[in-house]
Design brief:
This protein has a single domain, classed as Glycosidases (TIM Barrel, Alpha-Beta Barrel). It contains 14 helices and 12 strands. Strands 1, 4, 5, 6, 7, 8, 9, 10, 11 and 12 form a 10-stranded parallel β-sheet that branches. Strand 2 and strand 3 form a beta hairpin. Helix 1 packs antiparallel against helix 3. The two termini are 25 Å apart. The N terminus is likely disordered. The chain binds ligand 9MR. The site of ligand 9MR has 11 residues, from loops.
C-alpha cells in the first residue's frame, strides 16, 4: 500500500531535519498537503525549488535554515542549487575546484529523497565568469586553449555529479536588448561556436542527462527581441546538430498592474508563437526559475498577493498547456530569501513578495495559484 502524501512528506521532513542536524521537536508543521510535487506528478511533471547560501551582506541564504529544508522536502521532488554549481563557486582559480557546498547540498537532497538538477555549466556573460577566466592568458594558440579550459570544466563538473539528470548547459548567452549573442573571452577565441562546444562536451560527459539552454526571455511585450534572439540561436544549434534537448524558461515574470482578465491578446499570442517555435524544433520545455516580481504593484499586501497570484495563474495555465513542460522549479520558496529583495527593490522600500511562502513560511495565494495551475494542466 503506498503511503499517503501526508506520510511521505512527514517522513521526508524528519529525514531532512535530521540531515540538517536540528532537534526533531523543532521541526515546524508547515507542510501543505497534498504537496505541489504530488499535484505535478499526477500530471506527469515534477515540482522543485531553488536553495542557496545567499550573498553575504545582501540576502541571507535559505541553505542554513532547517525550516526551509523541511519546506523543500514537503513540497518538492527536485532542488536546484541557486549559485553553488556556478563556475565562480566551483572553479575559483585555474585548476582549483571547490565542490564542498555543492556536495553538502547533494547529500541533503539525497537524504530527503530529492533529486538535484544542475545550474549551470557555462553562464555565458563576462560579469558572471570568474575574473581569472576573463583575464586568462590563453597563450600562442588561444582557440585550442580556450576550448580546453571550457571542456575541462564541463567534464570535471559533470563527472563529479554523475547523478544530475538535467543540466543547464548554457545560461543567458542572448543579449536581451539586441537579441545577439553576448561577447565574452570565449567568443573572442572561439566565436559563436563556443555554445556548440559546450553542448557537445556536456553530451560526452553526461550522456544520460537532459541538456538545457536556459534564458530569461519571457512573455512580456518588452521581451520581443530577446525571444527572437533565443529562437535564432536554437535554430542554429539544431541546424548544426548540437545536442540541445530542452529550453529552460526561467519565468521571472513581472505584472505591471494590468487587468489579468484582459491580458493583451498580443502578449499571449506572442508567447504561444514563441513556444510553438521552440517545441516545433523538437525541444522539451522546463520552467526553471519561476518567481513573480511585485515592484510595480500596490503596497497593500492583500491586493499585491492577489495580483501576483492571478498573473502567475494566467502565465502558468498558458505555459503548462504545453505537454513539453515536464518540470516547474520556483527560484526560492520563501520571500525573504529571494534574490529580488536586493537586486530589484521596490521604490517604496517595502520587502517584495515574489514567492509562494511568506517570511514566516506561511503559504500565500501564489502557492494556491501554482497548485491550481498544476492540477488544471493536461496530463503528459
Ligand atoms: O539568485 C541568484 C543570486 O543569488 C546570485 O547572486 C546571482 C548571481 O550569481 O544569480 C541569481 O540567480 C540567477 C540565475 O543564476 C540565472 N538567472 C537569473 C537569476 C536571478 O538573477
Amino acid at each position: 500500500m503506498p503511503s499517503s502524501p501526508e506520510r511521505v512528506s512527514r517522513r521526508a521532513c524528519l529525514t531532512l531535519a535530521a540531515a540538517a542536524g536540528m532537534a526533531m521537536s523543532a521541526a515546524p508543521a508547515l507542510a501543505q498537503s497534498p504537496s505541489l510535487d504530488t499535484f505535478a506528478r499526477a500530471r506527469g511533471m515534477r515540482f522543485g525549488g531553488a536553495v542557496g547560501a545567499g550573498r553575504p551582506g545582501r540576502v541571507n541564504g535559505s541553505y542554513a535554515d532547517p525550516r526551509y529544508w523541511a519546506l523543500l522536502a514537503s513540497e518538492c521532488g527536485v532542488i536546484v542549487p541557486e549559485n553553488e554549481l556556478k563556475w565562480y563557486a566551483l572553479h575559483p582559480a585555474p585548476g582549483v575546484y571547490t565542490f564542498e557546498r555543492g556536495d553538502a547540498m547533494q547529500a541533503k537532497a539525497a537524504a530527503g529523497g530529492l533529486e538535484m538538477r544542475g545550474h549551470n555549466l557555462l553562464w555565458h556573460r563576462s560579469q558572471y565568469l570568474p575574473a581569472w577566466v576573463n583575464d586568462h592568458d590563453f597563450g600562442s594558440n588561444p582557440g585550442a586553449a580556450a576550448e580546453k579550459l571550457l571542456v575541462d570544466h564541463i567534464e570535471t563538473v559533470c563527472a563529479h555529479y554523475p547523478h544530475i539528470r538535467s543540466w543547464d548547459v548554457v545560461n543567458e548567452t542572448v543579449d536581451e536588448t539586441t537579441g545577439q549573442m553576448r561577447e565574452t573571452v570565449f567568443t573572442r577565441y572561439l566565436g559563436t561556436e563556443v555554445i556548440d562546444i559546450a553542448f557537445h562536451a556536456a553530451r560526452r560527459a553526461a550522456p544520460h542527462a537532459q541538456l538545457v539552454y536556459n534564458d530569461y526571455m519571457s512573455w512580456e511585450p518588452a521581451d520581443a527581441n530577446h525571444r527572437d534572439g533565443v529562437l535564432r540561436l536554437l535554430e542554429r544549434l539544431k541546424a548544426n546538430k548540437v545536442p540541445v534537448d530542452a529550453l529552460g524558461l526561467q519565468s521571472h515574470i513581472q505584472p505591471m498592474g494590468q487587468d489579468v482578465g484582459k491580458l493583451a491578446t498580443a502578449q499571449t499570442a506572442e508567447w504561444v508563437r514563441f513556444l510553438d517555435s521552440a517545441t516545433g524544433m523538437g525541444l522539451d520545455l522546463l520552467i526553471t526559475e519561476f518567481d513573480v516580481a511585485d515592484k510595480h504593484l500596490p503596497a497593500d499586501i492583500a491586493v499585491r498577493d492577489r495580483a501576483v497570484a492571478d498573473y502567475a495563474r494566467a502565465y502558468l495555465d498558458l505555459t503548462l498547456s504545453y505537454r513539453q513542460v515536464k518540470q516547474v522549479l520556483s527560484w526560492g520558496l520563501v520571500d525573504k530569501y529571494s534574490w529580488l529583495q536586493a537586486e530589484t527593490p521596490r521604490a517604496d522600500g517595502l520587502p517584495e513578495r515574489p514567492t509562494l511562502y511568506d517570511g514566516d513560511l506561511k503559504a500565500k495565494p501564489l502557492r494556491e495559484a501554482v497548485a491550481q495551475a498544476l492540477r488544471s494542466a493536461p496530463s503528459r
